[in-house]
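Justification of resources, computational component.

The compute hours requested in this renewal are based largely on the per-chain cost of generating structure records like the one below. Each record pairs the submitted sequence with a full structure-token output. That output is archived, and it is also reused by downstream analysis tasks.
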Amino acid sequence: MGNVDAAKFLISLLRDGNGMNIPRDSAAATDTVVRYSGLLSKAEIWQYDLSITASLAYGGSGYASIGAEIAAHPEWISTALGAELQKANPRAAMYVLQQRLEAKGLYHGPLDGLAGRRTLRAMYAACDRLGDRSGCDDNVFATVDNCSPNFCSQVNLVNFEAGS
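The structure output for this chain reads:
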């Protein structure tokens, strides 16, 4: 039937392109999800469909719809989802993160999808709520002036739920 890792790689490649000879092609990525749906769990299909939608999202209303979809399926939030959203659309991933931090009362800034100082401070506060801070003690993150976006989206889409 196929190799699940190869299918996931192909979906991401078609969604994001490679910056050289393979352009972004959301329609082909969607077709590939359908073609290889037998290899993927329901959660993975949802996550890839959402990441494809996120790759096309622009601005507050587009990003907000991604956040609403995630809120509707908290059981499917995973580190993989954070990584795929980050690759598909870093601003959408950061917007969702800001929404989630705001809902926890940790973020009091604009929902703009930018990893500004207030966003990073809120992320640090979310990490303080965790019993195990090992995922938060990244040397880049510790400065609160800069943050590896992939790290930020993964830690905060998944882990700070534990500190609720």
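Confidence is low (pLDDT under 50) at residues 139-151, 158-164. The two ends are 41 Å apart (CA to CA).
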